[in-house]
Amino acid sequence: MTQSMTGFARGSVTTGTQMVTVECRSVNNRFLDVQFRMPDTLRECEATFRQQVGKAFSRGKLELSIRTHEKTSSDPATIDHERLDTLKSALVEIADRFPDSRCPDQLSIMLAPGVLIEQASNLDALQAAATEALGTCLLELREQRLSEGQKLALMVEERCAAIRTQLDLLKAQLPALQTAHRQKLLSRLAALDLEADPKRLEEEIVYVLQRADVEEEMDRLGAHLDAIETALSGSAPCGRRLDFLMQELNREANTLSSKSTALNTTNTAVEFKVLIEQMREQIQNIE
């Protein structure tokens, strides 16, 4: 199914004394770009988390924030006396070198890294909770992206239908347009009042009409529209394929405009390009 690349989701898991919350913001990107903000205790799991994200999505810039919160524990914190002695020696040396410096208070010493040892949490349980919360977040994000993708697919299908309708009208008018173009050539030649070999004249007219023929471009436009509908109905990510098809549609519309011999054909080509540009802007958000 068609999937957008924009969305926001949150997943939260509580286990034992740990609560883990994962938030993810997704925007469009040419490739899969995953960025994490997480506690250092979970850094060793980053490779696993990236694999988890890669299985769920193939494109988009995903910014993931993982927060952990430990409930109040009845186990008291302890002091690392070895670390405290090291810090004391360092403070004495600093006082000798800088006698006018202010000594830290007890709270500052206690908050120094490594002095206060909190009760060690179960790292395996924390990692398992983070993995589960991430899975919940990614599932919700996928649902959002699918919902948005369906809206984008509907918009693209509507524009394709509008192009196909105008293409069918142009095909029906093509014989009359060719006849009018031929008559215009003959009228211009008659206005010159020149003697011309009838056979050579007919050959030249056929050559000019062939150069102005747009049936091949219209056939390719129809084939590209079929390819777009096939891509939208498939299960694989189709954003890049659709982007390529937009380029092909625009190329055929430009050729149709350059070969135009009537205002009607020119207006139709312009309308094609307007509809193509509308689709192209939205396809940038499709995975």
What are the main properties of this structure?
single chain; two-stranded antiparallel sheet; Butyryl-CoA Dehydrogenase, subunit A, domain 3; alpha+beta; 3 domains; elongated; Ribosomal Protein S5, domain 2; 287 residues
List the helices and strands and how they pair.
Elements: E1 7-15, E2 18-27, E3 32-37, H1 46-56, E4 60-70, E5 78-79, H2 81-97, H3 106-110, E6 116-117, H4 123-192, H5 198-211, H6 215-233, H7 239-258, H8 263-283
Parallel strand pairs: 3-4
Antiparallel strand pairs: 1-2, 2-4, 5-6
Helix pairs in contact: 1-4, 4-6, 4-8, 6-7, 7-8
Describe this structure in words.
- It is elongated and about 115 Å long.
- By secondary structure, it is an alpha+beta fold.
- Helix 4 (123-192) packs antiparallel against helix 6 (215-233).
- The protein has helices at 46-56, 81-97, 106-110, 123-192, 198-211, 215-233, 239-258, 263-283; strands at 7-15, 18-27, 32-37, 60-70, 78-79, 116-117.
- It is 62% helix and 14% strand.
- The strands form 2 sheets. The chain has a 4-stranded mixed beta sheet. Strands 5-6 form a two-stranded antiparallel ribbon.
- The longest helix has 70 residues, at 123-192.
- It has 3 domains: 7-73 and 123-147, Ribosomal Protein S5, domain 2 (2-Layer Sandwich), CATH 3.30.230.10; 78-117, no CATH class; 148-283, Butyryl-CoA Dehydrogenase, subunit A, domain 3 (Up-down Bundle).
